[in-house]
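Record 1 of the preview.
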Amino acid sequence: MELMKGAHVIESYATTTLLIDDRLVLIDTSADADAHPDHVGGLASIKKNSPARVAAHRIEADFISRKKTWDGPPGPQRHTPTPVDVSLDDGQIHDGLRVIFTPGHTRGSMSLLDETRSLLIAGDAANNESGLRPMDDQYNIDPKQHRQSIKKLATLHFDNAIFGHGEPIKGDASAKFADLAKRV
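->
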């Protein structure tokens, strides 16, 4: 579904975002038929069958390539190891998107801000499956840090938001994050 001009949401187990303008950016490869974690399961297939470059927060890069073994929820890695081409850090601009370091769900969780569209791609920094809320603590490596990341996002301005799990918010999204930050 096209959420707004050039920003498409592909709903599956884990929401995939596709940005199309003078570039093509795929955010979150979701799940492969028999792989988990849910956000890198399809990565190896895409990398193998396209000229795509893989970008991830520098903390996550070794887990994605499986140079380090994942020790957080939801359990052991089963995805195919895939090298990361571009390591990202907080505040960095990559492909027109500002990297917002939002750890807690994982050690290297990040969100992306597309300021030209006033769009936050929150990833798993929050969940909107049944109203805006934090991810369930059983899936967070550090629940306290996860809530701090929600508060960090609440300081930013964006009209729209896309989540790794749940419905997008179109309009007034940063105000909804500010309300959530008061409750966590």
